[in-house]
Amino acid sequence: MGSRMTDHLADLGPVIPAGRHHAWLLEARELLRLAVPMAATQLAQMVILATDTIMLGHFSNRALAAAALGNTIYFMCWLLGSGLPMAVSPVIAHVQGAHIAGPRRASRANNSTGALAPKQRDQREVRIAVRMGLWSVALISLPLLAVLIFTRPILTALGQEPMLASDAAIFMSGLAWGLPFAMAFQVLRSFSTALSRAVPPLVVMGAAVLWNAGFDYALIFGHFGFPKMGLYGAGLASASSNIFSFVAMLAVCLAVPALKRYRILHRLWQWHRQSFAELFRLGLPIGITMVFEVALFNGAALAMGVIGLSSLAAHQIAITIPSLTFMIPLGIGLAATVRVGMAAGAGDAIAARRAGFTAIGMAALFMCCAALVLLLWPREIASLWLPDIPENADVLALAVSFLAVAAAFQLVDGIQVAASMSLRGLKDARGPMWLAGASYWLAGAPMCLILAFPLGLKGFGIWLGLAFGLLIAAATLTTRFAILSKKPL
Questions:
Q1: CA separation (Å) from 87 to 83, 187, 189, 194, 215?
Q2: What digits encode the pLDDT tens for the residues 330-345?
């Protein structure tokens, strides 16, 4: 197999030469070029969430609690809906890879279709993928918005205090309208990054951070001539930042020459069944996979609440740190989707395998460094969230013990996300969905409960169970990538 394959991924940009002895280092350079702005974009999204939390905390504790409940429902809907927009990236990466595979392949494909020149056909295929991504957002937004309308009865059915559920519904009445625009932004972001243009989404998201902070301040507290709207204003500010992000990213796509030439709004009303079916086939499992993982961690928080308030508080502190460090391997994984997808589209299994394992190795290396920091300074890190005073001693002691487990699962968490997204670059989404479901809910969740309650380890046992689920996910997903990347493409 290897003797018949050429290093087509070398043609992708500033460039991996045909000689193989530096190929792994050069692949790492190209991955970093994409991964750094992608990870920074993810961190910017977390800054928006942190801004909402800080400002609502200054408004009232009750408003903060209600927004946290509302965001739980919103985030689950966003996860389900974002799978299809995220599928745009590997689809476009495959088109790009096919384009760089060489004039002979492009000419052969063109002769078989008897239609457009290769460059025109590639642009048309990319444009259709973006168009169907936007169509998918329009279609899936309707049922998701319907779910958000029932925020109050959903939270009441989950046993939440009725008044708090009502406040969360007020927050959601402003926030919900931003959901379609948040998913549409994801489509345009996938389009830009799949073309190796990762900086424009970062710039847009940086501007959105400022937009959100300004409107939070204005609408929550009633500054700059705006009425004081509290929770509803916080939701409205976040929705407006989502609308701003989409409009700004659309403007970028229509203005930047490298993106403008694809004319993504051309014939926007035209349906393309085959492209939509491919997005649906990839996107739905991607969304479900993310729900599997997030639901496990949300379930862990609920179990902590059963154990006690100190365990829950310590859990909230300890889980924040891995959530931040996770953004780096997530950015590497997003870049791996593009690099593996381009190589797979070019029919080059050698380059696809190298891109995937380079991403896995880079994610593992970073997470080892993060683990070392958590092991060396756990109490100092926890004290950033909670003052180190006698009244907080119990919570801090629990947080330190949880961070020790977090240090242990940093490595496998980085590996599993890089492997999962490398598989996504191979357009393999259904297999990872089943592996994630089994890892988190047939292995991780039962282990959490067994260690926490029958064996009496309480919160520490829940964290050991989380680590076990991530370990199984990392092992199975990496094995699947190793097997699939050996097959001819």
A1: 6, 9, 11, 10, 32
A2: 999 999 999 999 999 9
